[in-house]
């Protein structure tokens, strides 16, 4: 009986032991699930971070690529200038000489002899000769032009070779390498071939020259090349996931790459990272944590069983000890995290978060921006850039209290007193130099309690815009900001009420027998008529331009459609044409209007047309619907006559800056040449800014077809035009 009782007395112990083991198993399982979820979150975060690094590295390489060509072309032009001047000085030039290998061209040519020149990158002159392009330098002397040039292909090849060496250096033993593909066509044939691999890292050189086809999948059947080809064709960057050979492991692995396009060479630049690079590190940490977890569980169970007799006493002590240890580690970790949260990791200065929390204790604040610091990073590298930032931080800490780093190239100094402009200019005018790199600062400040940082940032914007190096926030700056915001709100109200009014200015035919009109946008605000000069920039800044443009275009179409006015020109900017919604809106108006032959679209020649093919396609479509095309402000910039002819205009409107100066012989000759050019290609000419009879008669004698200006009439609303 006693033995049975003793056995029964063991039942609670056994049950307690069983429940304890079950608890440990459940506890371990819960921890495992939690650990898996944390791993998943960590992987996503790390992958997103790595993607951002890929973007930045590709952008940095593209900037380096462009800089390499700029340096090469600039050096070549400088050498050509020295060489040509030396040859002229020694009287060694007679006629035009082209080397047998077409590497060099030098000579003297008559001014009246025509050559095919083009302007490259808006600053280099290229000569097209015998199917070769030469980077040339010209010297104009009397009746002749002296010329010296180097074959552009030779310079390009030298730069490509340098870029290859540069890539070999940075890609050595680096699985996250940069590679280049050459896109030979954006319209592949049936085989889908669109280019080849131009450059691969040292361990994958055998893949250089490999044909690229949108129909060629990776080893898992994914047509990843088709995806990035479509994006690059639209000049868009993209991420692509595919399987590729890892040069470090020599195995095919999952890879994430970022693709971008380098124009005008049509190189596809990519940088990728293998998933194994991230997962391997995470897996290692996970295994260590898992092992630590297992050890803790097994040791706990063993200890639990071993010390069952003194469970309550020992366990209580152990729990207290573990609790104290956890709290201590937690406090230390919290301290580290708090420091990391409130301090910049590079300079160890308090960061923007810390500044925002401490702003209220300051009466004055100075904001310092390092001028052109991104250029310093590009030229000297991030390592040197970081050294410079540390040096600046140390210098500020020596001379000032309460120094913060609030941005990549921005510092803040807090003051327990009100500051004045002298405090700002003292910093802005400091002579700061790190080794061979001289630095300048743009400095702003504020004494506006409650909004120190915000107002200092506003003052910094004003300083950069006005090219001043030290600006203290004033009520004038605040008032200007308020006026800008008020004006934008008024513009929104104008848009809401559609108080956008077309004014019309007459365009007279040379014999005064025919009259056309140009539609000009005006708005009604505060019971006044406002011209575009007062609001056009704000429309673009507030992203209201497209809506305003659509309304004015619609109103002019309605006036023509309803027989209120005939033969009207409507101004279209490049912004209108590239915006898909506006384009479709215009096509819809044209399709509904039965008087398209009475409408002309004026396209500004002075605007930078970045996507010429989009503009050309738009013009072809509207001309097919009966709309006429005029090139506005012709002659205002570096007019590309070939491009103009490709647009097939019906009219050329000569820029007013030329017409105003027609009394100057040079401007007179330019106008005469434009008229001759237009007549040769059956294009009507329109002279703007005709302000008096004398200008009118001169232009009429030159053979101008149409005239526009205050000499004939000012812009008026439709009601006055009809009267």
UniProtKB/TrEMBL annotation:
InterPro entries (UniProt xref): Cyclic-di-GMP_PDE-like (IPR050706), EAL_dom (IPR001633), EAL_sf (IPR035919), GGDEF_dom (IPR000160), Nucleotide_cyclase (IPR029787), Rev_trsase/Diguanyl_cyclase (IPR043128), sCache_2 (IPR033480)
UniProtKB keywords: Cell membrane, Membrane, Transmembrane, Transmembrane helix
SMART domains: EAL, GGDEF
Location(s) in or outside the cell: Cell membrane
Domain EAL, first and last residues per copy: 484-723
Main location: membrane
Protein name according to UniProt: Diguanylate cyclase/phosphodiesterase
Species annotation: Lebetimonas natsushimae
Lineage of the organism: Bacteria, Pseudomonadati, Campylobacterota, Epsilonproteobacteria, Nautiliales
């Amino acid at each position: 009986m006693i033995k049975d009782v003793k056995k029964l007395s063991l039942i609670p112990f056994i049950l307690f032991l069983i429940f304890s083991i079950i608890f440990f198993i459940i506890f371990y399982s819960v921890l495992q699930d939690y650990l898996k979820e944390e791993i998943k979150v960590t992987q996503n975060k790390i992958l997103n971070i790595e993607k951002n690094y890929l973007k930045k590295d590709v952008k940095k390489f593209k900037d380096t690529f462009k800089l390499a060509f700029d340096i090469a072309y600039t050096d070549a032009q400088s050498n050509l200038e020295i060489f040509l001047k030396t040859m002229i000085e020694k009287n060694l030039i007679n006629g035009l000489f082209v080397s047998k290998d077409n590497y060099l061209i030098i000579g003297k040519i008559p001014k009246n002899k025509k050559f095919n020149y083009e302007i490259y990158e808006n600053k280099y002159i290229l000569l097209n000769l015998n199917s070769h392009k030469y980077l040339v330098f010209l010297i104009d002397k009397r009746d002749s032009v002296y010329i010296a040039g180097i074959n552009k292909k030779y310079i390009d090849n030298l730069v490509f070779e340098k870029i290859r060496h540069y890539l070999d250096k940075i890609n050595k033993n680096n699985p996250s390498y940069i590679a280049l593909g050459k896109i030979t066509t954006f319209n592949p044939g049936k085989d889908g071939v669109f280019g080849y691999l131009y450059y691969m890292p040292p361990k994958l050189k055998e893949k250089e020259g490999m044909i690229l086809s949108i129909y060629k999948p990776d080893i898992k059947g994914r047509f990843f090349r088709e995806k990035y080809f479509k994006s690059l064709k639209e000049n868009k960057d993209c991420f692509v996931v595919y399987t590729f050979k890892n040069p470090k492991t020599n195995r095919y692995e999952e890879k994430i790459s970022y693709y971008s396009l380098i124009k005008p060479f049509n190189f596809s630049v990519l940088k990728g990272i293998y998933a194994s690079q991230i997962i391997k590190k995470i897996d290692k940490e996970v295994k260590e944590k898992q092992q630590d977890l297992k050890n803790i569980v097994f040791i706990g169970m063993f200890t639990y069983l071993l010390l069952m007799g003194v469970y309550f006493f020992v366990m209580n002590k152990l729990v207290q000890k573990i609790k104290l240890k956890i709290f201590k580690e937690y406090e230390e970790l919290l301290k580290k995290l708090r420091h990391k949260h409130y301090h910049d990791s590079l300079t160890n200065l308090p960061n923007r978060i810390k500044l925002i929390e401490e702003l209220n204790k300051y009466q004055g604040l100075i904001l310092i921006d390092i001028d052109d610091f991104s250029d310093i990073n590009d030229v000297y590298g991030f390592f040197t850039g970081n050294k410079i930032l540390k040096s600046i931080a140390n210098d500020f800490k020596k001379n000032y209290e309460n120094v913060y780093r609030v941005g990549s190239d921005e510092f803040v100094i807090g003051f327990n007193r009100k500051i004045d402009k002298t405090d700002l200019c003292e910093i802005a005018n400091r002579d700061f130099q790190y080794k061979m790199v001289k630095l300048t600062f743009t400095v702003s400040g504020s004494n506006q309690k409650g909004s120190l940082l915000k107002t200092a940032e506003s003052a910094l914007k004003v300083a950069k815009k006005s090219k001043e190096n030290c600006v203290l926030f004033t009520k004038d700056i605040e008032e200007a900001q308020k006026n800008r915001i008020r004006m934008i709100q008024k513009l929104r109200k104008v848009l809401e009420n559609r108080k956008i009014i077309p004014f019309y200015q007459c365009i007279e035919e040379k014999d005064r027998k025919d009259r056309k009109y140009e539609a000009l946008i005006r708005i009604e605000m505060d019971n006044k008529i406002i011209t575009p000069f007062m609001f056009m920039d704000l429309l673009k800044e507030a992203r209201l331009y497209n809506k305003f443009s659509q309304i004015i275009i619609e109103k002019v179409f309605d006036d023509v459609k309803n027989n209120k006015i005939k033969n009207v020109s409507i101004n279209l900017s490049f912004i209108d044409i590239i915006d898909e919604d506006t384009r479709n809106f215009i096509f819809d108006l044209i399709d509904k209007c039965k008087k398209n032959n009475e409408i002309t679209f004026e396209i500004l020649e002075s605007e930078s047309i970045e996507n010429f093919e989009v503009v050309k396609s738009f013009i072809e479509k509207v001309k097919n619907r009966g709309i006429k095309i005029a090139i506005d402000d012709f002659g205002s910039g570096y007019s590309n006559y070939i491009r103009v002819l490709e647009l097939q205009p019906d009219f050329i409107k000569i820029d007013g800056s030329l017409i105003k100066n027609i009394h100057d012989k040079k401007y007179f000759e330019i106008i005469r040449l434009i008229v001759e050019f237009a007549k040769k290609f059956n294009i009507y000419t329109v002279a703007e800014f005709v302000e008096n009879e004398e200008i009118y008669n001169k232009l009429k004698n030159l053979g101008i077809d149409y005239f526009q200006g205050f000499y004939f009439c000012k812009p008026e609303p439709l009601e006055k035009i009809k009267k």
